[in-house]
């Protein structure tokens, strides 16, 4: 199969120049040579009897987000065909959503119709599903086509989500609005007295930039922004600019936080110094709540946070803010602080301090929900059951030859390397390594990408005219965080190695990681590695793993692994 048009589009963007902003008006490159997957599309199963049957359309709409002209966005619109009416929750007036609510053991049918002017597919982030329902980039469908998902919910209670997954276009499609929550419950969770209904709240955190006509602007820094990842100049909560949750004094709440931003990392803390009480991460409840002074939330990461307004009077305001951490190198553009891209700095630099959302108790009420000291049973994987415990597979995420790579390779639609083939029924440890810019140096020993500049300390392009200041052209830019997502599995985090992490950075973020529970995404700070353990069960097939900085993913920092 020939390479789809999205690869050509990536090459086009690479040549488009560093200074031009891209305003989100589609079709973007719909006239390009396009080819969808040649694999057979799933059809309605004659013997599949769904408990929940719904339509999910991806469409373009004009919504009032800011005062003045409406904003062109892409949204998922849902319609329930069969099932409890509580299975589908619409967030009125928002491009985010819908919220789909399912139970473990239920059979779900989702009829995805692509009404966008370009190809797309839906990935059920964190869900354990067969290959054909995972949303692999090779399964994209064209405008006007429909893709049928039919699967049994096998996951634990947790906060999951869904978003597009066409290679080379995931970043702009998510940025333009395509994201929703998928909430799973199970018997274990239902035995607890956790908040429900209006007291169980989605809190989707995203950053966006708007032009003077209220239209979304993407990659204002052009190719440089793609290398570092998109950073917007304002925060939206659940697709709205107010950054406010109107709640009731006297009540207790479950806040389901999702970092739905393309590349922004959040270090979340209550402004009044109250602890952030976390009781769920990604694909599970924790075995016990954790109280943190702040919470690190990388792209695609979810956390369930307890909020108790029992003793708060009506009129109380509580602000969740982003607290500072030293990643200024990501806000100064590709060239580092003082470099050529200095004029493209974000209004909200990565790692700076700013308000994220405010809780306003503008009414009163009461409920009797409780946060127990014992939540989920800690049924974590026994490390001794891993066949490679003492020799884990290693995957290095790094810059090599001006490309974001995994073990020196970039995206290939269906290809897998030897180290990317695993056996069904096996338990394995993978070591995920943030390797910065050290991958695949040239054989001459000069080190084209040695971390000191594009050509190294003695290189041709070191430059003394200021253009390459801040460590050289590549400089600090390559020392970037990578949030790593593995499809099809939930894993346990065994350990983090922070030997090569800058001590100042580690000291600023170390207390915000929650490694207990079941995860599908792990944030690797520059220089960090993490060992994770997972089981490959139930389904053979081709799945992907990648950096969930969506700009890195679109540029090729994604690979297949195959379960055989």
Automatic annotation (TrEMBL):
A GO MF annotation of the entry reads: oxidoreductase activity
Annotated membrane-spanning segments are: none
Q: Which domain of life is it from?
A: Bacteria
Q: What is catalyzed by this enzyme?
A: 4 Cu(+) + O2 + 4 H(+) = 4 Cu(2+) + 2 H2O
Q: Do the record's keywords include Oxidoreductase?
A: yes
Task: Describe the location of the Plastocyanin-like domain by residue ranges.
Answer: 83-188, 227-312, 474-562
User: What EC numbers are recorded for this enzyme?
Assistant: 1.16.3.4
Note the Gene3D superfamilies from the entry. Answer: Cupredoxins - blue copper proteins (2.60.40.420)
* Main enzyme class: oxidoreductase
Q: Which keywords belong to this entry?
A: Metal-binding, Oxidoreductase
Q: Which InterPro entries match?
A: Cu-oxidase-like_N, Cu-oxidase_2nd, Cu-oxidase_C, Cu-oxidase_fam, Cu_oxidase_CS, Cu_oxidase_Cu_BS, Cupredoxin, TAT_signal
Subunit-structure text: Monomer.
| Protein name (database record) | Multicopper oxidase CueO
What is the source species? Answer: Marivirga sericea
